[in-house]
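Q: Give me the 3D complex with NAP.
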Amino acid sequence: MSMPEGTGSVAVVTGGTSGIGRLLARDLAADGMTVAVVGRSETRGAALVSDTEGLEGAIRFHRTDLSTRNAVRSLARELLTTYDRIDVLVHNAGCSSSRRVETEDGFELTLAVNHLAPYLLTHELLDRLVASAPARIVVTASGIHTRASLEFDDLGCEREYDALDAYARSKLANIAFTVELADRLPTESGVTANCVHPGFIPSTNLFRDSSLRTRLLIRAAALVPGVGTTEREGAERLRSLVMDPMYGDRTGEYVTGDGPTAPSAEATDPAVREMLWNVSADLVGVDPDWP
Ligand SMILES: NC(=O)c1ccc[n+]([C@@H]2O[C@H](COP(=O)([O-])OP(=O)(O)OC[C@H]3O[C@@H](n4cnc5c(N)ncnc54)[C@H](OP(=O)(O)O)[C@@H]3O)[C@@H](O)[C@H]2O)c1
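A: Here is the predicted complex, encoded as structure tokens.
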């Protein structure tokens, strides 16, 4: 498999309105791609679209709140109508919430946005990716997944809610999903799926809804020399999964600053991956027997 060409290719980047996703969207557009940015903020979306300086390609904005299944399905329809090819799908949108919030669908918000939305959007767009192959799916995970366990009897954290645990669990789900997807995708599909830990990047907006205590902890951790990563470095890690020829061939990898790295044992456990796949299919209302 080769890499997606810059010029003429289409990349969908969720969470492209802020932080590392915003930088990635601009980088890919600078490489000549048409980048479909997905996010909620109309203001930030419009600012991205209007700032065309240095871009060989273009950025388009698709305003969507990814927290509900209807919104994800309607986004998928919009993308399929607007773009006759999709070469790259980057699931980068992510959130962390200080208190337990339920979405309109009745799911815990962090799980819904960080895991269920990528699951459903991939399901809806996969045929177009295969038709555009070689194509890549990239998921922004996190090293924090190592502190989590997928408790299938309480995926929505109803028993007890801790913001960091809920976030870490959703990031573990990101990796288990990516590894399972890569396993299920036949080589002939020409589509690879990899995920990345972008580093600890205290400067983004990720923790804007976190408690004061968490925000103070993050600010303190950021002061420890060598702990934090810049948004530019984080975006470069994502970009390498999109553009580096290596990830046109390798699939199912979890990539950190040290390159392909072993995630926690739970993330690659076949039984956990299959269970997550089936539970997710049930929650978003699709047949689990895909791709
Ligand atoms: N920062 C870190 O230390 C760190 C570490 C490891 C992994 N990550 C991961 O990196 C990714 C990017 O985060 P970031 O640090 O760059 O944070 P960020 O600046 O807050 O960016 C998050 C992006 O996700 C979008 N988003 C959040 N909730 C959404 C929703 N309901 N519907 C649609 N879009 C939504 C935001 O869009 P709007 O602003 O337009 O709503 C924004 O574009 C996340 O997946 C995060 O988990 C971050």
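A quick observation: Residues 10-283 form a domain with the Rossmann fold fold (CATH 3.40.50.720).
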